[in-house]
Structures are given as structure tokens and as C-alpha cells.
Specification:
The complex is a heterodimer of chains A (267) and B (281).
Chain A lengths: L5 H11 L6 E4 L3 H11 L6 E4 L3 E2 L13 H5 L3 E2 L2 H10 L5 E4 L3 E2 L5 E2 L2 E2 L7 E2 L6 H7 L2 E5 L25 H4 L7 E6 L2 E5 L6 E7 L4 H7 L5 E9 L4 H19 L13
Parallel strand pairs in A: 1-2, 1-5, 5-10, 10-11, 13-14
Antiparallel strand pairs in A: 2-3, 3-4, 6-7, 8-9, 11-12, 12-13
Helix pairs in contact in A: 1-2
Chain B lengths: L1 E2 L1 H8 L5 E4 L8 H9 L5 E4 L4 H9 L3 E6 L3 E2 L3 E2 L1 H9 L6 E4 L2 H12 L4 E4 L7 H4 L4 E4 L6 E6 L5 E10 L4 E3 L6 H7 L2 E10 L9 E3 L6 E4 L17 H10 L3 H13 L4 H10 L3
Parallel strand pairs in B: 1-15, 2-3, 2-11, 3-4, 4-7, 11-13, 13-15
Antiparallel strand pairs in B: 5-6, 8-10, 9-10, 11-12, 12-14
Classes of the chains: A alpha/beta (267), B alpha/beta (281).
Chain lengths: 267, 281
């Protein structure tokens, strides 16, 4: 379908990677949109876990924060946060973890902590959150990030979450339980690790993107897979479902909130 | 047991104390944070997984010397500009960071609640965090020889929570998204809880989250005390406030003017909320 944005294409491409009944640890933003799109299309049994402790949540609208009431109200159940990280994630009960980052390197290591030196950064970013242990324990990690030479870098300013470390099996030798970043969905297509070197290589392009565009957007010499697939454009059903989700979300977020102010004299 | 908010903050928060205002997106004790700012407490070691707007405000108003945290952004919006200014430019004063992941901080709160010296997890592997934080170390399992990450227990001098209700004995019931609120409460030396309502008796609920009266130091009746975060069953999160905060907090002067008008010049949380109904926020 023509006329869709690269953001929409990225979201649809990520959603298609999710198999029904998988257990997904979801972050806010594009990953949340992708997971809910998958749930509303081909994967109705997808189990979504948000780190706030909401498990099996089926939000009607996308949350602004990781702890919006919508996530709790539509959850199968809600558990304390330490349980999510210890009994579910660390215990190996999460199939897919979604991560974003300000910087990624060729081995899928991620930085969401600082730009510049740690002690005196030029830009202090929010930090780790759940990412280090999601990166460590999820069976597979999918990264969603827009590409530029500032974000897809030769060398991270700080390693917040481990991908394949220095490559060539370093992650596996270190004993990481999870499989690491199996796919990086970006705004020209998709990267995936080389089976021997672990280096991210171009494996698929959106139908309207080119190898030249991909190489120009990446800050290291981008390796190309032997065969580069074409990612089919969003179908009308995928795009309609995604746009309806965003429309519901905009409408819900525009509703004014009443201040919790009881009339004078009442308790 | 039952205090006004001003008295509870005055009596239990001393300059230099370690203080955890917990609640994960939900039930963030904003009213208590504002009262700490009004009483101009200084040198606090602030502890919170997600500093959120409440610590952005306290840091920008000069209450903090140190921050223990695991994710310091404005959820779904972007940066906490006052936290960034403190780290990037030491304004209004330098801020020491004790930085963790969520899993690490959860383990530290659990250890604190159990009065163990440290928490342990399979975490931080391959990251630069242990090199930057001496509080992230490793320990060898005495049974298997496996190396595990270790973090010291967090035992705040004071934990402050917001909850839906307390009964006449001071038992506190919380429902909805909890974060690490229960663990932070049980880890604290002093526990202050602000509540939406006081009831004669809590409804029976066998597996509910209840903080029993003998671990609660002070209960404060403070309706709306979590606004602009939310209290399930009472009011929803004001997402637009979080979006507007990005503009309010971006520049020092705008931030200080807003805090002066809405917090320093209001006498209590009710006056703060009333002021918002009259202003554009």
C-alpha cells in the first residue's frame, strides 16, 4: 500500500515478527504499538507484559506511560514489579523483549544512559530501566530504532544493555541465558546478526528503500546478507487497524482529566 | 498515628535523610514531595526507581544531594529537564548518582524489606554500569560456584507512599499497579502513608496488599495526594500535565516561577489543586 509512513511500516514489520501466544515484554512507543497491532491482527493470543507488573494486558488504547491505568484495567492480573523481573523475566518465562536505544553498535549493544563521558555527560539520557535484564534474559530481543550516523555508531558512549558484546560468540561464551538481538527493525528495513560473527547485517529492505540509503544511515561499514529480502508494504487491514488504534489513542488522551478536588467541607 | 501532612514531614524528614517516595507511575506521593519542598528540606538522598516529575521538582528546588534510581525520564514524553540540568551542569547543586537497572533496584528493595545485607540477581552482565557504580558487585554462589550480581540492600530512613485507604487502626490497603511500593515500605525505618480516604474498617480481602498498622509510622488523610499521577478508583493519570511539564521544566526561570506560584505560595495540597483550576497549569 502506498502512502504509509516509515514509522507505520516499521511498526507493521515488527508486528509480523510476533507469533501468536508468544510472551512479550513490551516497552512504550513503537514497540507498544507493534505488539498491540499484532494482538489485534494475526496474534490474538499474544501475552503482553509491561514492566509495571501488568500481565496479559489487552489495552484498547496505547498507554502514554508504562503504568497507565488502561494497562491495569485490561490486564489478566497485576503483580508487584519485583515479581515481573525475578519470577518471569529472570526465570526465563519471556519469549520476546523489545528494546529501543539512543545508540546501537554493530553487535547490537545498546546505550540509553549518556552521550559523552559518564561523569560529565553532554546529554544525560533516562538510563537503564528494565533494559539490561531484558537484553540478558529474553529468548529473543527485537530492537526498534531509527537509523542515523548519530544513533547507529561505530562505538557506544556507554553500554547499557548487552547485545553480542564483541561478537564471534562472546555473548554465548559469557553464559547469557537469552538469545540476544535477533532483529533490528529500523526505518529502511531490518538488520540481523551474522550466524558466525554476530555482526548485524542488512537482511531486508522496505520496498521503497535502497541499499545505498541503508549504508548512508549507518555509522559503520554495513555488511550485506547474501540475499536481501523485500519487506512487503502494510496490507490495508494492517494499516487500517494501526491507524484506528492511534485514532482511539488520540481521542482517549484528549479527554480532560478532572482534578481530584472534593468540594469544601467534604472529607 | 494520624498526622497532618505538614506535621508528618516536619517531624520525620530531617535534612540529610535518605528518603524513598515510591509508587510506579501509579500512586506517586506528589503532595508529600511538595510539602518537602515547602519546608525547604536540604541534602536529601532521594531513592526512587523512576524519579518522575516529583523528583524533578525536588531536585530542581535544591532538596537533593544524591539520587538512587533506575530510569530517569518523563514517561512517554522525554527528559526530566531538572534532573538533566543537575547532572549536566550541577544546577542548582551537584547530584551524586547511584544508578541501577529496575531489576537491580527491585532486588535491593527486596533485600531491604527482608533485612538482608544485599540482594542478588542474574543481571548487569556485559554492561558498563558495574564499572560506574561501586554498589554493583558480584558474589559467588556457595553451592554452584556461579557468579551473580549483588547490590546492597536499600533501607531508607523514611519511605513515603500514597495509597487508596487506611482504617482507624492505621492499616493501609493498596490496589492496582504497585511497583516496588510494598518492598520500599517494609524496607524503611519510618513509613509515612498519605491516603485518599480513611475508613472504619478495610474490606476483607485475603490476598490483598495490606501494610499492617505496626509497620506504619504515620497516616495522613490527603485526597488527591497522587495527582498528577493517579489513584485507581479515585482519579486517572493526568497525561496532559506530564506533557506540559516538558515545557514548564525546560528553562530554569520558567521552572522556578511555576514552583513559586504553585507550590511555595500554596499552603497545602488542596490549595495546590485549587490553584491549578484557576491557572493554565
Amino acid at each position: 500500500m502506498s502512502g504509509c509512513s516509515r514509522n507505520e511500516w516499521m511498526t507493521v514489520a515488527a508486528a509480523r515478527l510476533l507469533r501468536d501466544k508468544s510472551v512479550c515484554f513490551v516497552g512504550i512507543g513503537l514497540p507498544s504499538a507493534a505488539c498491540n497491532l499484532a494482538r489485534l491482527t494475526h496474534a490474538p493470543g499474544l501475552v503482553l507484559i509491561y514492566e509495571s507488573g501488568t500481565i496479559g494486558t489487552r489495552p484498547q488504547v496505547l498507554p502514554l506511560s508504562i503504568g497507565d491505568g488502561e494497562l491495569a484495567e485490561t490486564a489478566a492480573y497485576v503483580v508487584p514489579l519485583p515479581e515481573v523481573f525475578s519470577y518471569y523475566l529472570q526465570a526465563g518465562r519471556v519469549d520476546i523483549g523489545f528494546l529501543g536505544a539512543a545508540q546501537i553498535d554493530r553487535y547490537g549493544n545498546l546505550n540509553s544512559t549518556v552521550i559523552g563521558p559518564y561523569d560529565l555527560p553532554t546529554t544525560r539520557l533516562p538510563g537503564a530501566g528494565g533494559a539490561p535484564e531484558i537484553a540478558l534474559h529474553a529468548r529473543q530481543v527485537f530492537v526498534m530504532a531509527k537509523a542515523s550516523k548519530r544513533s547507529f555508531v561505530e562505538r557506544l558512549d556507554f553500554c547499557t544493555s548487552a547485545g553480542y558484546l564483541d561478537g564471534y560468540g562472546a555473548r554465548a561464551r559469557g553464559g547469557a541465558p537469552g538469545g540476544g538481538p535477533r532483529a533490528v527493525i529500523t526505518d529502511f528495513g531490518m538488520l540481523a546478526p551474522h550466524p558466525q560473527t554476530d555482526e548485524l547485517q542488512l537482511v531486508a529492505l522496505f520496498a521503497d528503500a535502497s541499499v545505498e540509503e541503508a549504508c548512508a544511515a549507518v555509522g559503520w561499514p554495513l555488511a550485506l546478507a547474501d540475499a536481501i529480502d523485500t519487506i512487503a508494504p502494510p496490507t490495508p487491514h494492517e494499516l487500517d487497524t494501526l491507524r484506528a488504534l492511534f485514532a482511539r489513542t488520540r481521542e482517549a488522551h484528549a479527554c480532560p482529566v478532572h482534578l481530584p478536588l472534593a468540594p469544601e467541607g467534604l472529607p | 498515628m494520624f498526622f497532618s501532612l505538614a506535621d508528618a514531614i516536619h517531624d520525620y524528614i530531617t535534612d540529610g535523610a535518605s528518603v524513598a517516595l515510591e509508587g510506579f507511575t501509579h500512586l506517586i506521593p506528589f503532595a508529600a514531595g511538595h510539602e518537602i519542598i515547602r519546608q525547604r528540606k536540604r541534602g536529601l538522598h532521594l531513592i526512587r526507581m523512576t524519579p518522575d516529575l516529583v523528583y524533578d521538582q525536588m531536585i530542581g528546588m535544591g532538596c537533593a544531594r544524591k539520587l538512587t534510581f533506575s530510569w530517569g525520564g518523563n514517561p512517554g514524553v522525554g527528559s526530566l529537564h531538572r534532573l538533566r540540568d543537575a547532572v549536566e551542569h550541577q544546577w542548582p547543586n551537584p547530584l551524586e548518582l547511584d544508578e541501577h537497572s529496575h531489576a537491580g533496584m527491585a532486588a535491593a528493595f527486596c533485600a531491604g524489606a527482608a533485612r538482608l545485607p544485599f540482594g542478588t540477581l542474574r543481571g548487569y552482565a556485559g554492561t558498563d554500569l558495574p564499572a560506574r557504580n561501586p554498589n554493583i558487585r558480584s558474589v559467588t554462589c556457595p553451592f554452584t560456584g556461579e557468579s551473580l550480581a549483588a547490590v546492597p540492600a536499600i533501607n531508607p530512613d523514611v519511605t513515603i507512599l500514597h495509597a487508596q485507604r487506611a482504617d482507624r487502626e492505621g492499616n493501609v490497603a493498596i490496589e492496582g499497579i504497585l511497583g516496588a511500593a510494598r518492598e520500599a515500605a517494609l524496607a524503611a525505618h519510618t513509613l509515612i502513608v498519605t491516603v485518599e480516604e480513611l475508613v472504619e474498617e478495610l474490606p476483607p480481602a485475603m490476598n490483598a496488599i495490606v501494610l499492617p498498622h505496626w509497620i506504619v509510622t504515620a497516616v495522613v488523610h490527603c485526597p488527591g495526594g497522587a495527582y498528577p499521577s493517579y489513584a485507581r478508583g479515585h482519579y486517572t493519570r493526568d497525561n496532559s500535565f506530564y506533557q506540559r511539564w516538558d515545557t514548564v521544566a525546560r528553562e530554569r526561570d520558567d521552572f522556578l516561577a511555576w514552583m513559586e506560584q504553585h507550590v511555595l505560595r500554596t499552603s497545602d495540597h488542596r490549595a495546590f489543586l485549587t490553584g491549578l483550576t484557576r491557572a493554565d497549569g
